[in-house]
Here is the input.
Amino acid sequence: MDKEIFREARKQYFKNFKVLFIIVAVLLAAFIVLLGKDIFQPKQRVRSNTQAPTQRVYDQAGTLTEEEIARLEELIAVEQDIGKADIVLLITNQEMGVSDYEWTHAMMNCADDFYDNGKFGYDKPYGDGSLILYNWYEDENGSQKGVWLSTSGKMERIIGSYEEDDVLDELERYLLNGDPVRGYSAAISRLSYWGHTSEEKTQIPGLFGFLTATLIAGIYAISNLKTPKAQVTTNAATFVHDHAAVMNAEQDNFIRKSVATAVISNNSSGGGSSRGGGSYGSHRSSGGHSHGGGGRRH
Here is the structure.
């Protein structure tokens, strides 16, 4: 009799904590997999694209001195390794179109095609990176000055309207006040920041998920240990009175019964939009490669 009672108590205990045991088993399996993949250790990516030129600053308008170009080249060399994405600066002085429509498409095509023709990309040709295009052109019809940001690879996914504004705001802060070199430098640093932020996020999801699940399991265990179902509700004397087994019969009497029905709709609605692509959105260049970005006319 005692053995049957303890067997029933043990069975009830495992039933009450079934969810906890499942969580522990899943965590253990996940931990073993994560260790096998070495996901807890930050992985340092190195530039693997050997097809693109090493030059990063192209001043076709002749607005920079050799010293300024050298400083910008040094800055980009450091920042693109931090952000794990190529950064290219193209400065030009050419007609892009009088109307806003013409100007927008000419700037976009110029930036995208220059990036593609150079086969830029940190990880591979046409891969992770950004190109800043600034045009200084103006004539009797007015100014066609302005900036365009072309993004590719992971930077296309990262740089949405918010991030694009952040980069262009930094450029304009100094460039429109007569210090273009500082403006270019500020924009380059912001692109590096956003690229670096994305790298940090990709290193922690496994660890974060594991710790979160562990925390949930711990809270579940502590909260349930304090409840009556975590205690042994039967023992050897539970059904014994005066050395005799006692079983109490119970009966449920239903005096009135009513059933309520409700229709539950399976229709669901919802949605979202990708934060990447920039203000102009994702599009294909003339070479067939995917780009994001946007710009501002000054």
The two ends are 91 Å apart (CA to CA). The domain at 57-201+276-297 is CATH 3.10.310.50 (Diaminopimelate Epimerase; Chain A, domain 1). Confidence is low (pLDDT under 50) at residues 38-42, 243-247, 254-274.
